[in-house]
Design goal:
26 strands, 3 domains, Immunoglobulin-like, four-stranded antiparallel sheet, single chain, mainly beta
Length: about 375
Amino acid sequence: MTMGFAFGTLAFLLSTSPTEGRAANDLRLLMSVEQPSIVAPFPARATLHFHNASPRTLWLYRRVRNGAKEGASLQVRLQPLEVTDPKAIRLAAEGAVFENAGLPRPRLVRLPPEGDTTEKVTLKLLPARAGEGKNTSVWGRYRLSVVYSAQYSNTEEVARETNAVLWQGETASNVIEIDLKPPAGEGTVSGTVVNAQGRPLADVIVTLSDQDERPADQTATGSEGRFFFDALPLGTYWVTVRRPNFDEDTTVFRHVTLTPDAPAGSIEFVLYPPEIYEPRGILHKPVLILVTDGQENPLAKVRYETLWSSGKVLDTSKGETERDGTAALELIPGRNFVTLRRKGCTKQEHRIDVAPGGGVDGFKLALECPGK
């Protein structure tokens, strides 16, 4: 059962939700979940509902990650309700948002005053433990909430170039009560990840998905390149591996079927250096541009076309500026060329150098049009 949501009927709840940070009153967050009961080891599927309560347009970074130094992060708070003696808890409950199974697709979302937007996330929830063994997990009722945060090292620079407000700060969601239930399955999926020379690869993101390709669990390989999922119901699963912090797509996936006669599946992955022939295999970066008439007046409905080339891969995009002269793009870091066109004006070429790494870049471009 999906928990319903409507900002109009929940204004009081939102106005009293706990928030903190420099922009706490600007952005409000409400979370809903698909199911009120979660059977381990499967995750909670949640939707984050954002509302811009400020009189200015805000820009949000998507998607959320764990502990992001640039961009948006999500901290999960999980608290048991049915523990009579809190001192008996040896390990606190934990939660984390799933990382992208494939190459991330970061982008910026424009949120006008009183505007709303949503983002779906998958949350891995680990119950508290009353001891050190597997059978000491504390199952039952829990309080679940999240804290959404965003930070950038170049906020002032982006604001100076584009007049745009990259929202940063922290805001906490409402609290939801959910049931965490013990696993019902006995199947396992395990394997190893090695490089082309056969050496084990540590810290590779391994995502387990069900037959409908919905993420079911996630882990990272250890020092010996091994991964392991257990307590799984029988059925077909997809396993996807990806090396994090790579600018090129390293994603490899295979499937395995668990049956009564073969409840344990094993997959061995060999990750070769990626050969990229299409721009979608290269990590893009969110970029904001502001187009003016050269006298600081923003220009709306300016058509733009971008071009990036490595000699082997060609990346292009097209669009049009908003009423305030801004546009959000996803560009490959490096040298990009932007062509601006407006009715009655001569087209103009600009070069912008997108910095490597995370976060957001911002550029001001002038389209001078004598006689307009």
